[in-house]
Amino acid sequence: VRLQASGGGLAQPGGSLRLSCAASGAFFGINAMGWYRQAPGKQRELVAIITSAGSTNYADSVKGRFTISRDNAKNTVYLQMNSLKPEDTAVYYCLTIVAPKDYWGQGTLVTVSS
């Protein structure tokens, strides 16, 4: 499974960004896709995850601001990030779970600054 993430960059506080991550390769059935992030000096943390059935889970810090969605036909997961805050600055990593393995993307930098 190969993951290609895109959409990171610079945004102002209160602004928006949309991340995308497409999975490719030879596999059968994605169980879940999601996003983690790692800020400088901090541990990697869950941002949001969505199962193949569409169930979602969000970190408390992003609830109401971020929305995760997926296109099963395209094996792609999206993260719409609104009302961005400086504390959202981090490298965002795409995760795809094809049981029993986890696959990680290369990371995309999101910087929120005025």
Describe the structure.
- With 114 residues, the chain is an all-beta fold.
- It is built from no helices and eleven strands.
- The chain has strands at residues 2-6, 9-11, 17-24, 32-38, 45-51, 56-58, 66-71, 76-81, 90-98, 101-104, 108-112.
- The strands form two sheets. Strands 2, 4, 5, 6, 9, 10 and 11 form a seven-stranded mixed β-sheet that branches. Strands 1-3-8-7 form a four-stranded antiparallel β-sheet, with no helix packed on it.
- Strand 4 (32-38) and strand 5 form a beta hairpin.
- The protein is globular, with a radius of gyration of 13 Å.
- The termini are far apart.
- 30% of the residues are buried.
- The mean pLDDT is 94.
Q: How would a textbook summarize the main sheet?
A: 7 strands, mixed
Low-confidence stretches: none
By secondary-structure content and strand pairing, the structural class works out as: mainly beta
Structure annotation, total helices: 0
Distance between the termini: 37 Å
Number of strands: 11
What key attributes describe this structure?
114 residues, mainly beta, four-stranded antiparallel sheet, 0% helix
Summary of the model, kept short:
Helices cover 0% and strands 55% of the residues. The protein has 114 residues and is mainly β.
Q: Secondary-structure map with pairings?
A:
Blueprint: E1 2-6, E2 9-11, E3 17-24, E4 32-38, E5 45-51, E6 56-58, E7 66-71, E8 76-81, E9 90-98, E10 101-104, E11 108-112
Parallel strand pairs: 2-11
Antiparallel strand pairs: 1-3, 3-8, 4-5, 4-9, 5-6, 7-8, 9-10, 9-11
